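Field reference: sequence -> structure
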Amino acid sequence: MKSKLLKISITIILLLSCVVLYNLPTISLWRSFNNGVRAFNEKNYDRAATEFNKAMGISDDFILKYNWCTSLWTDVMKKQKDLKITAIDDSSLTVSERNEITAKIEKVHIALNQLLDLQELNNKYLKKIYYAQGKLFLLEALVDKAKQSFLNSISKDQNFTLPQAELVKLKTEDEQDPAHQLLINIAEAKPIDIERKWNPF
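Structure field:
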């Protein structure tokens, strides 16, 4: 009888220990980060943003904010591609589709501006943030703002081809021109990505 009670006690202690460990902030942080990376890899960008947002509730580390923002932005770009539109003023959009994508764009603009307000940003991230901002402005049919964002991106890295391709596309009037299609392919071949490795400690 004593050995049975001892086994039950040990089992209960182990279960409680597992529950406590599972809910430790550090474990929750890593779990949310890894779930976010997994969801992003599975192209479930909305879920990835949710997971990175959970992690941001535990830590204010820049990488979590960057990944959250990138997931939100990629979700908008995916929505644009799914709807087959170049701008939100496209006549093929229903009112609900336009409202949905407009709300998503607004949320991403806020997130991008929060990132730009951070002091620790280096050019590796700034170039991507300005490029992402430019793509949103294009979607909103704000061409001059888009151009300025792309120029800001290039100012951070003159070898970053994505904003260069977008600027040239804006100057190319003939969509049948092979150079125009090449630039589109370049722009679509190198998406902005999240940070998959993270060492906060």
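Note: The mean pLDDT is 86.
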